[in-house]
Amino acid sequence: MWVWSLVIIGGFILYRLYRDYSKKAAQELEWYFQRGVAELTQGNYAEVIVLMNKAITKYPSWQYYLLRGTAYYHLLQLKLAYMDIEESIKQNPDMIANAESYRLKDELKDLMPFY
């Protein structure tokens, strides 16, 4: 269910991107995000990380950190996951809009002592 939240959030990204970047750049970043969500749902976590690295270098947005952090989480790279989730929350502390980051952060706090 949280994947659909990411897809919906992706639509909201576009407005901000159009305001800050050219149309072509915004479309490219939206493509990275949508492709990242698709790869995440298929379990291609390494590919999600590659895509989000590219997006973050162009426009370091909290949604990209959340998606990359989720991929790290699934690869059990918990420290990297936690760092990305922290950055996502730092950029967007709104608990409603960024609820998935807060949920994942709590889960990582519980798991990290074991790794």
> Can you write the helix and strand succession as a string?
HHHHHH
Can you tell me the CATH superfamily? Tetratricopeptide repeat domain
Q: Could you estimate the helical fraction of the residues in percent?
A: over 70%
Task: Please report the total strand number as a whole number.
Answer: 0
CATH architecture field: Alpha Horseshoe
What is the averaged pLDDT score? 86
Instruction: Choose one word for the global shape.
Output: globular
| Overall domain count | 1
The end-to-end distance, rounded to whole angstroms, is: 27 Å
Low-pLDDT residue intervals, each spanning 5 or more residues: none
CATH class category name: Mainly Alpha
The CATH topology name reads Serine Threonine Protein Phosphatase 5, Tetratricopeptide repeat
Characterise the protein shown here.
The chain has 115 residues and is mainly α. It has a single domain (2-114), classed as Tetratricopeptide repeat domain (Serine Threonine Protein Phosphatase 5, Tetratricopeptide repeat). Helices cover 80% and strands 0% of the residues. The protein has helices at 2-20, 23-41, 45-58, 62-74, 78-91, 99-111. Helix 2 packs parallel to helix 4 and helix 3 (45-58) packs antiparallel against helix 4. It is globular, with a radius of gyration of 13 Å. The termini are far apart. 31% of the residues are buried.
